[in-house]
Amino acid sequence: MSTRIERMKAKLATAFAPQRLEIEDQSGRHANHGERMGLKAGETHYAVTMMAESLRPLSRVERSRAVHEALKEEFETGLHALSLNLSVPE
Question: What is the pTM of this model?
Fold first, then answer.
């Protein structure tokens, strides 16, 4: 069984072929937040920093939507919130 971070990294790598990809689990900063919403403790809140050439033609909103779509299965299984820092190489 893989962790949510491992699954997210694999899905984002496949979808965007990023030059840089970092994912931080910030669930601990939101103690009891998920449980109040009926979610399992932990693995609910993440910060994603990704640089990918494939994002270049997309607007800021389109980039966010594309990441959310790539992680759709994760949202369906308890992922609750993402903080996104998405960029393209200079």
Answer: 0.84
Q: Can you give the residue range of the structural domain that contains 52?
A: 4-87
Rounded to whole angstroms, how far apart are CA atoms 27 and 23? Answer: 12
Which pairing describes strands 45-51 and 20-25: parallel, antiparallel, or unpaired? antiparallel
Residues 26-39, buried b or exposed e (16+ Cβ, 10 A)? ebeeeeeebeeeeb
CATH number of the domain within which 75 lies: 3.30.300.90
The number of residues in the chain equals 90
- Could you read off the pLDDT of 48-68 as tens digits, one per residue? 999 999 999 999 999 999 999
Distance CA 51, CA 73 (A): 22
How many Cβ atoms sit within 10 Å of the Cβ of residue 57? Answer: 9
